[in-house]
Amino acid sequence: MRFSLSAALAALLFTLAATASATAPPNEDGYDLWLRYRPLDKSAQASVQAQARSIVLPGAATPTTQAALDELQKGLGGLLGRAPAPATRIADGALLLATPARLPELNSNTSPLRAELAALGNEGYLLRQTRVQGHNVTLIAANSDIGLLYGTYAWLRDIGTGAKLEASSAPTLQLRLLNHWDNLNRTVERGYSGQSIWDWWALPDIKDQRYTDYARANASLGINGTVLNNVNSKPEVLTAPFIAKAAAIADVLRPYGIKVYLSARWSTPLELKETSTADPLSPEVQAWWKRKADEIYKTIPDFGGFVVKANSEGQPGPQDYHRTHADGANMLAATLAPHKGIVMWRAFVYAPKGTHIGEDRAKQGFDEFKPLDGQFAPNVLVQVKNGAIDFQPREPFHPLFGALRTPVMMEFQITKEYLGFSTDMAYLGTMFEETLQADTMTAAGGRTVAKTLSGIAGVSNIGTDRNWAGSHFDQANWYAFGRMAWNQQAKAKDVAAEWAALTFGADQRVVAPIVKMMMESRETVVNYMTPLGLHHIMGTGHHHGPAPWVDNLERPDWNPVYYHRAGRDGIGFDRTAKGSNALAQYAPEFARQYSDPKTTPEQFLLWFHHLPWDYKMRSGRTLWAELLAHYDKGLADARSLHDQWVALKPLIDARRYTEEEQRLTRQMANALLWRDACIAYFQSVSGLPLPAGVKAPAHSLEYYKSVTFPYAPGHW
Ligand code: BDP
After folding, report:
1. Which of helix, strand or coil describes residue 95?
2. Which pTM does this prediction carry?
3. What stretches in the chain show pLDDT beneath 70?
4. Atom of ligand 1 at shortest distance to CA of 715?
5. Is the CB of 309 under 6 A from ligand 1?
6. Residue nearest to atom 2 of ligand 1 (CA)
7. How far is CA 52 from CA 49, 64, 92, 161, in A?
8. What's the pLDDT tens digit per position in 56-96?
9. Within 236-375, where are the H helices?
10. What is the Å distance from ligand 1's center to 399 Cα?
11. Rg for the chain (alpha carbons), in Å?
């Protein structure tokens, strides 16, 4: 009897436990991003409550500290069920937000925090459990109100992830920007998450709540600038009505420490018929831009400046008047300098129609900008894409990093133009880390790309989709960009763990497997799209799906065959001295190492070398067999990503589970298409048999060539 009772009890407990763990959390639509503030468990609530029995901000609230207080109300309201009341007097258990201006004793000679605060600059913060005025408090301290806002987000983040309080943090780079490639008609170039969030038609009168939530999300990461419109810009952007609209956005973003910038079209005054030329040395043109800058600053006093795409892909620029990029950039810089504005002049240039034919496209940015080094005004930065071609799934770092004295900004692409849009999972934190930590070898003892930077920009993946980014996992790319813009030494894996805990809850049964998936995901995409240093073999125009066979576009360097150079003799682009010699643009030490295929990392092999199909790889396989193995691994890993997600089903809310499951299913199909199409094509050129165990593509090459993607998004 006793036995059967305890057996029954055990069975009942088992059933209860099984039911509990099978009950998925409530549905979420992703709108709250990583600022979800869902209730903590009871013991965590008690410890947070003890840190924040009251909230104290000495001195008057400003719009920025008000944003911090509002976030605490929202955050603690969600995490604890009830937020503590703001108080005026410091007491035991207070959460104290203070700057030296608000609490002078922080700056007194006897303050143990004085030196530490001084080292934090304008934007840094420190978090500390300490004693102030005889009371035990949790202190968020900074030198400015924006530092307090960043510190507030950091404190909430530490609570959300269950991490120990961060000691202190300050950004290394002052310019941490998003670049929106948003058009005035709300289409988004390379956007895969709906329309532009900027409703230009409704502005300036109607300011969507999204703008505030956008500001909160960015401030929570430390992003402090945003370029509102596409680099392929329109003259109207700089007309009074649009300046007023930009000003309305700037008003919403300002309390969050975010400045507004605009992309300026070089020929704006000419196209608006307000000048007779766009020559940067023409006094008429100079006077127009000066008036324009003054007009903008009258409306947006803290306007950040311009980003400019000039003489690139058909855009107008100073070269149309036989002037240089420096002439153009400096002319604009002179108009902005009195207002403390900057010019971010893009180095993404390759020959305008008809010129440079035959020159390796990878060399052209360096060739144009290196000779101009030293000629740019102090408020000009050269904005350089991470690699020398174009946001490929993997590229070696651009040779301009470390090569210029002129301040250089990094341009990453957060939106996944070449990595499967927002349908394929690819966590870009690993790509950002790989690039930032790459050694430019431009100094004795090494100099990472990160160390060469004066700023960082990311091409936004934000749109009107309910989940902002097109998929839940694409939110992680916005998050990772922001965290790594703040701290270039951050590890992709730590950032992924933070994001996963904040986005799906700090349960290790969820966080650990999600981090594993994220860390595998981008390599998976590289493997099924462009392994071993292959690049730019995507479909024409929209850049989705495989098209390594394309050879009929107007410019040679628009054709995939130009980049992979596969033939009977082998595959790859020879960028050594025997080939285009793009390697000579890198530091000598780097060039030496990468000139020899044996000392070139295999992930970049075909970027720098043209090698025979029977070239022996480190694995002992031939290059042909290795290429096939990578395509197979890409497909197998895409399937594994799906399976890993399915295993998490009981722990993820149904809505987000299903939305991602559908995408991962589509990703498997995309991986299969890439694998099969590339194998079919490369086999047709190599003429080699498939080694035993490698499955033949399901269809003929002709079939793959006939696959089209009508209405693929993001291509305008
Ligand atoms: C390419 C995009 C194109 C952009 C261009 C750029 O395909 O839409 O306009 O970059 O960065 O990747 O200017």
Report:
1. strand
2. 0.96
3. 1-22, 352-357
4. 8
5. yes
6. 190
7. 5, 20, 9, 17
8. 999 999 999 999 999 999 999 999 999 998 899 999 999 99
9. 240-253, 268-271, 283-299, 325-336, 361-369
10. 19
11. 27
Q: Three-state DSSP class for 480?
A: helix
Site to substitute for ligand 1 among 179, 182, 188, 189, most atoms within 8 A of C-beta: 189
| Res 18: pLDDT | 44
Q: Both ends of the chain: CA-CA distance in Å?
A: 76
**Atom 11 of ligand 1 has which residue's CA nearest to it?**
348
Q: What domains does the chain contain, in order, with CATH numbers?
A: 42-169 (3.30.379.10), 175-504 (3.20.20.80), 529-573+610-706 (3.90.1330.10)
b/e per residue, 594-606, with b = 16+ CB within 10 A?
bbebeebebbbbb
Cα within 13 Å of Cα(237), Cβ side: 26
- DSSP sequence for 490-539: --HHHHHHHHHHHHH-S-HHHHHHHHHHHHHHHHHHHHHHSGGG----BP
> Which atom of ligand 1 has the smallest separation from the CA of 230?
9
Catalytic residues: 313, 390, 417
Cα–Cα distances in Å, from 361 out to 91, 148, 320, 323, 344?
64, 46, 20, 21, 22
Instruction: Give the residue, out of 233, 384, 385, 390, with the most ligand 1 atoms within 8 A of its beta carbon, to mutate for a pocket test.
Output: 390
State if residue 411 touches ligand 1 by the CB under 6 angstroms criterion: no
Position in ligand 1 atom list of the atom nearest CA 190: 8
